[in-house]
Design goal:
heterotrimer, A alpha/beta, B mainly alpha, C alpha/beta, A: alpha/beta, Aminopeptidase, eight-stranded mixed β-sheet, 22 helices, 11 strands, 58% helix, disordered C terminus, B: mainly alpha, globular, membrane (chain B)
Chain lengths: 598, 425, 377
């Protein structure tokens, strides 16, 4: 306290406050720049760490897997059946598969999902000598995330079931799940497993989702997907385990869809690419319908990853089976859930990562940048007594905006979820939203006639909206870094508005140019613009991509319980709207500022 | 008129929302920030079940509410068992309205009192603002929705001040303090600043009459309550479950306090030391604060026994074993009473408000990370407990410093108080 | 470095001795005798869980060896979690191997675990060594040594600088261990101790010992890990630690009547073998290791002198014991605790019915109200 007192005295003595006030916008912008620079620095040598197995009990790759020679014949036998299947028909009712599994001694059950109207077959093998309280899950979706029939996967599924049943080393139960896809169908199974299903096998420690679309014996390398919903990630030990096991088999591993040529590159750019792609994928997890499956397990303390076979030649199908077998044996060695290692990390490559302490400052800097801008707005046109008397009005206005957003978001979500033609409805809604955004942005240019809000109210509304974004970022710092940071960066132009308004007031430069700039800032920081742009750019989108992405966003809560939609609709959008309202209806008169300065 | 409107609005928020969304009570009663084992509505309902089934209240160490409180609440619920939850909603609403109304009275009294002492008119905030500060304080609203029994303690604390100051009836005040101490133990430490306050405000300062009698009334009130409790349960268990539990930190439930973590993460053999020190910490500053801000009869410009009581309340809620957000909420809601005396001289209110907002945002999220998602750990949540402690300390020091600055200004009458910069040496 | 000097010195001395031995016609001359009359072994694996398979295998290997060399089960105290053989993860249920060739099933023999599961605690270990038990402790679980006992103590598990973890829950420090040995010495509970420890930073564990006649060997020095020797790819875990592996390899060549001296064992402990720097501490030990037979500790070969029994002395002992009432308690006297099968029973002095409670409450409220009304200064 005494130190704070001393600092305060110094600040008063030197008259720092007015000086500080003038450079606040620059400080805010510099902090935002520093935040991006911080992240750009992380893939440099020496800033990241090598992954390591933290849990002694795992011992990956220390055991011989006998999923070879004789099992190969089983694999070929099953495949000769599987290639003839009609996958879309078989996925709901597969008598043959059920019989196979029952023959191997697994107890087969079914789960009917009323939402998607599909039936998921799953089989449980109770560990003969285990204590029957924990389980591992192997998921073989009928269709991969790319929509291809998972032929190799459905071959390996029964072959491994047969092989696992012959072993007596299991301390955890095994569950095999065959959902139609890894998206909402699997999600509904996971939810049902923890709530309504009768045939269960204890708490699930880990889950592997397997994608092997080709029907050939050979594959090139292993791809790992690991992003979960709402910023959750599987324990890093699970990824390490699979990576280690694969390297023991001599198989190369890629993350974030690195092409096989890039896997062995160890340079800054390849690391940055993986890193950036990781943030983007984590921020948009649960939205794309090309869900890799592992995200369906989020929220139940289950560590899940998806492994897919990619490439044409190099390794054979039993090696893929051996990776699954050996990884399961490792998890089987665990005494309890994964608890060592990291839950918050970002990968640079399968073997390099940064942990939360290293990358968190980036988001903190963005949050502080918004907070400082908010302070600047406040200091630009509001005095303390004004602040106290008007704060309740501003809260009331903002709550009103928030309430409208809540109603609209619920309405749009309900319409899209219940629409028979989901995509058409989505496109209509997106058109509506884009037009409304454009109208809003254009009306800031229109003129100064409509002044509904008083001067104090306008400044405070702007300040409060910026503060709201800062708090939004702060609250998501740890739980969902990727989304917090992305929103922070996308909404950053909102912090330029107050300095631009002040420039207008001061009469520097032409008024219309400043107005155009304010309009531009509003346009590019709008969540609607960002969603449309993202849909257009990622997952080889185009116009169809926009529809896909927006549709995914609207149904993501209903299908996957992803919060992203509500964070955007109730966090980012109201703040943006409040600033837009302040810009359109607000009164930022120049005289008052000048008088104050005098 | 305006005050009535505020009261009606506050009542609507408290009564309508839990009536139409009954789940909210249950969810909040299970939230670590607004409900602890000693004041949780869940354990009160558990107690009702025990009463219905003839089980000893304190068997199984699940109930930590005092027996008279349980019986009274049960009787209230039994008036219309099918609508019990509405009765409780109404009851908690009424109690909170009472507290808010009494705070406005305290505000009026305090400003009059200060005007007399300082010899100039001190204009406080208007009553409806004071009521609004209490009724729309989110911390208090949450505590009320959670139906935490602390709401009754808050009422009793405010009531005892009103009795002693506004109604000039310090014996009733002592009884009210006894009831507050009976309800949640920790207010027992407030007897010290209470006696100082009573002594300071009464016209003829006769310590034998005031202090001794007052203390005796307090003592007999507590004794009576304890004896009746014993008669009700026929077992001394309630002393252990309601009061010893508070002293001995037996329930390791995570809360916003500073101490639970120490007991869960440290070696057991340190526990007796910690228990001793934390309890000492809880009460040891009460007397010094009461003395330092005592209103001396001769020097009318300095000292503020009411503030001393307030500071003790703040300190005791900061260092108690099972704090909830409502404890800070009560303190924050009473802060505007000092709007013309201390607050103009405080410097860190803005910072402590921001810190509090961040803490309140993050603590449920970290709790969720730790308990539900399993990707965080107890350190996450405890860090927020620490931040909460920081908020308390900043507030506490800020108020003390503010009052000292004011004392300086009143006694030395500098020419331009606005430019005055005092510092500690 | 300190550790290394005695070791080096000792290496020089032993090589000199070896030269002399080669020259000498009868090496027996150089053998010294300890004069002990009985041999004991305390074998402890302080870790638990499947991935610590090798510690259990280490301990059981030593158990097998001392038993093979003649120490009876009644004189071996075996402490280990014993959660490996019947672990569901064990691909060969009921077995523990110390080599990937799976030639010897260490668990297959008749083994007697004295302290198992959660009984492997620091407290039990210290109580065992110092023999401080209540009277109910069975004799089979006690270390009944006297001043003529040679004790071999073997510890393995996870250690650090001057501590050894016991089952993830607690740890014993080097000072605790040293004090324990001192107490054993004061209570005349040993003639000589051979203390062997195979953990990370093992040498730090014997640094603080200050009691006489203790020979110490550790597997690695400060800030050094001890390593496992090899894994069995079918069991899926490492099966034995390097230090113990080479100890055993040497001991396998020894039989009951062997005259091999203990320095020959020490010669096995090279960095090339163990991959860490084993330490040997001889300063407390009265004899020169080069003259000490391995069987002084690992075998059960003693010189026994039979004298005439002093009947008079025996009878006095008996009579004093009778007077002190230390006769065994009558076995038939079993305490029976009654178990109630009634339902819930309240412990309250009296039961307050709902009506009564309401009456009490009403009286209380009325009374309080009265006081409230009356109390008007």
């Amino acid at each position: 306290m005494a130190l704070a007192e001393t600092v305060l005295r110094k600040v008063y003595k030197l008259g720092l406050l007015p000086k500080l006030f003038l450079i606040l916008p620059r400080v805010s912008f510099l902090l935002a720049l520093a935040s991006v620079a911080w992240l750009l620095m992380l893939p440099m040598d020496g800033q990241f760490r090598n992954t390591y197995i933290s849990e002694n009990a795992l011992m990956p790759g220390q055991v011989t897997s006998y999923f070879r020679e004789s099992e190969w014949n089983y694999v070929r036998g099953f495949r000769s059946e599987v290639v003839n299947w009609n996958f879309s028909e078989m996925s709901t009712d597969n008598e043959l598969l059920t019989n196979w599994l029952q023959d191997f001694g697994w107890s087969v059950s079914k789960h009917r999902d009323p939402k998607t109207n599909t039936t998921t077959t799953y089989a449980i093998m109770h560990a003969p000598r285990g204590d029957n309280t924990e389980a591992m899950v192997l998921v073989v979706p009928y269709f991969t995330s790319e929509g291809m029939p998972n032929k190799g996967g459905l071959t390996l599924g029964p072959a491994l079931a047969n092989y696992f049943a012959k072993m007596s080393i299991w301390s955890k139960n095994l569950i095999l799940v065959f959902p139609h896809n890894g998206h909402s169908v699997l999600r509904s199974w996971v939810e049902a497993y923890h709530t309504t299903l009768d045939a269960t096998a204890g708490s699930i420690d880990a889950a592997l989702v397997v994608e092997y679309p080709s029907d050939s014996d050979a594959f090139g390398h292993l791809e790992i997907n690991y992003e979960g919903l709402n910023g959750q990630l599987p324990n890093l030990d699970l990824i390490n385990t699979v990576t280690t096991v694969a390297s023991h088999e001599g198989i190369r591993v890629s993350v974030q869809g690195m092409s096989p040529d890039d896997i062995d590159k160890r340079d800054y750019w390849s690391r940055l690419q993986v890193f950036a792609s990781g943030i983007l994928r984590l921020a948009t997890a649960g939205i794309s319908s090309k869900s890799p499956g592992c995200e369906s397990f989020s929220g139940w303390q289950i560590q899940a990853i998806t492994i897919s076979a990619a490439g044409e030649k190099g390794h054979d199908v039993t090696q893929f089976g051996r990776i699954i077998d050996s990884s399961f044996r490792s998890v089987n060695n665990l005494l309890e859930k994964f608890h060592q290692s990291f839950f918050f990390y970002l990968l640079m490559s399968p073997r390099h990562f940064v942990s939360i302490g290293t990358y968190l400052p980036a988001a903190v800097l963005v949050a502080v940048s918004f907070a400082i801008s908010s302070l600047y707005s406040l200091a630009s046109g509001v005095t303390t007594p004004e602040f106290i008397t008007h704060i309740s009005d501003v809260l009331f206005i903002f709550t009103g905006i928030e309430a409208v957003c809540l109603l609209l978001s619920l309405l749009m979500q309900t319409i899209v979820v219940n629409a028979t033609e989901g995509y058409t409805t989505t496109i209509t809604i997106v058109y509506g939203l884009v037009i409304s955004t454009l109208v809003t942005v254009l009306s800031t240019l229109a003129g100064n006639n409509i002044k509904i809000l008083s001067k104090t109210h306008s400044y405070m509304l702007l300040a409060f909206a910026l503060f709201f974004i800062a708090m939004l970022i702060v609250s998501m710092l740890i739980v969902h870094f990727a989304l917090a940071f992305s929103i922070g960066i996308c909404a950053l132009p909102l912090t330029f508005i107050q300095p631009l308004i002040n420039m207008c007031n001061a009469g520097n430069g032409s008024l219309i140019k400043h107005k155009l700039r304010i309009a531009m800032c509003l346009l590019i920081s709008s969540p609607i613009t960002v969603v449309v742009a993202l849909g257009y750019l990622i997952n080889d989108g185009g116009m169809f991509g926009i529809a896909n992405f927006s549709h995914g966003l609207f149904v993501s809560w209903d299908a996957m319980q992803s919060w992203t939609y509500f964070i955007i609709a109730l966090g980012w959008y109201p703040a943006w709207s409040a600033i837009a309202v302040a810009c359109i209806f607000g009164d930022f008169r120049i005289e008052s500022v000048k008088q104050k300065a005098d | 008129m305006s005050l009535t409107r505020v009261l009606v609005a506050g009542a609507a928020v408290r009564f309508l929302i839990p009536t139409f969304l009954p789940h909210i009570v249950d969810i909040l009663a299970g939230t670590a920030e607004v409900s602890t084992p000693i004041d949780s509505f869940r354990s009160l309902q558990e107690a009702f079940f025990y009463l219905d089934n003839g089980i000893d209240l304190y068997d199984g160490a699940m109930v930590h509410h005092p027996p008279i409180f349980v019986s009274l609440m049960k009787s209230a619920g039994d008036l219309a068992p099918a609508y019990a939850y509405i009765i409780y909603n109404a009851l908690f609403t009424l109690v909170d309205l009472g507290t808010a109304y009494k705070i406005t009275k305290l505000n009026t009294w305090y400003n009059q009192h200060q005007s007399l002492r300082l010899g100039r008119s001190v204009e406080g905030l208007s009553p409806h603002l004071l009521a609004a500060f209490y009724l729309f304080n989110p911390l208090i609203v949450l505590t009320n929705w959670a139906h935490s029994s602390a709401i009754f303690t808050y009422f009793m604390i405010v009531e005892l001040l009103v009795q002693a100051l506004v109604d000039h009836n310090m014996f009733r005040g002592a009884i009210a303090l006894g009831v507050a101490a009976y309800l949640s133990f920790v207010p027992i430490y407030l007897i010290v600043p209470y006696l100082a306050l009573v002594y300071a405000v009464s016209k003829p300062r006769d310590w034998r009459v005031l202090i001794l009698k007052c203390f005796c009334v307090f003592f007999f009130a507590v004794t009576l309550l304890v004896l009746v409790s014993f008669a009700l349960t026929a077992l001394p268990d309630f002393v252990i479950q309601c009061y010893w539990l508070v002293l001995s930190f037996q329930k390791f439930a995570p809360n916003l306090g500073l101490w639970w973590y120490i007991f869960t993460e440290m070696f057991d053999f340190f526990n007796p030391l910690y228990k001793g020190i934390f309890n000492l910490y809880n009460c040891v500053f009460v007397a010094p604060i009461a003395l330092r801000f005592f209103e001396s009869a001769k020097d009318k410009k300095t000292g503020d026994s009411f503030l001393a009581f307030y500071l003790c309340l703040l300190w005791v809620s900061f260092s108690k074993s099972y704090p909830i957000v409502g404890d800070l909420g009560l303190a924050v809601s009473m802060l505007p009473i000092f709007s013309q005396t201390v607050i103009p001289h405080t410097k860190f209110l803005f910072i402590s408000t921001l810190t509090l907002i961040v803490c309140l945002l993050l603590s449920p999220i970290f709790y969720y990370c730790w308990i539900v998602l399993g990707n965080g750990n107890s350190n996450f949540f405890y860090s927020m407990s620490l931040i909460m402690g920081v908020v308390y300390i900043i507030l506490f020091l800020d108020i003390i410093w503010g009052r000292l600055v004011m004392d300086y200004i009143e006694t030395n009458e500098p020419k331009d108080p606005a430019k005055l910069r005092l510092t500690q040496i | 470095m300190k550790l290394n000097i005695p070791w080096l010195l000792w290496a020089i001395i032993s090589s000199v001795y070896a030269l002399e031995a080669a020259e000498a016609i009868s090496p027996e001359k150089q053998l010294s005798t300890s004069g002990h009359t009985n041999n004991w072994a305390v074998l402890v694996s302080t870790s638990r869980f499947w991935f610590n398979y090798r510690h259990m295998a280490n301990t059981l290997s030593l158990y097998r060896t001392v038993k093979r060399l003649g120490v009876p089960d009644s004189q071996i105290i075996l402490m280990m979690a014993d959660d490996i053989a019947c672990n569901p993860r064990n691909a060969f249920p009921g077995t523990i191997f110390n080599n990937m060739d799976q030639a010897i099933d260490l668990y297959g023999d008749d083994i007697e675990v004295d302290y198992r599961g959660y009984e492997v605690t620091v407290e039990n270990f210290v109580r065992l060594l110092t023999d401080r038990w209540d009277e109910n402790q069975p004799r089979s679980k006690r270390l009944l040594t006297d001043e003529n006992s040679n004790v071999f103590i073997y510890l393995t598990g996870h250690g650090g600088n001057e501590f050894l973890k016991f089952q993830d829950a607690e740890e014993i420090g080097a000072y605790d261990l040293a004090d324990t040995f001192q107490q054993m010495h004061e209570k005349k509970r040993y003639k000589e101790i051979f203390f062997m420890i195979d953990t990370c930073q093992a040498n730090t564990m014997y640094l603080r010992i200050y009691s006489p006649n203790i020979l110490c060997v550790g597997s690695s020095r400060l800030d050094e890990s001890s390593y496992s020797h090899h894994s069995d790819m079918d069991v899926g875990v490492a099966v034995i630690d390097r230090f113990t592996y080479y100890t055993l390899e040497f001991l396998e060549k020894i039989d009951k009547n062997s005259q091999t001296t203990i320095d020959k064992l020490f010669e096995e402990y090279t960095f090339e073998n163990v991959h860490s720097h084993p330490g040997i501490r001889t300063d407390l030990y009265g004899r020169d290791p080069a003259t000490v037979r391995l069987t002084d500790f690992f075998g059960n070969v003693q010189e026994v002198t039979v004298r005439d029994k002093n009947e008079l002395l025996l009878s006095t002992v008996k009579s004093t014991r009778m007077q002190e009432g230390q006769l065994p308690v009558d076995d038939h006297e079993i305490l029976r605790i009654p178990i109630s099968n009634k339902g819930y029973e309240s412990t309250a002095l009296h039961q307050v019915s709902k009506k009564e409670s309401q009456i009490i409450m009403a009286v209380l409220v009325a009374f309080l109200g009265l006081i409230w009304a009356v109390s008007k200064e």
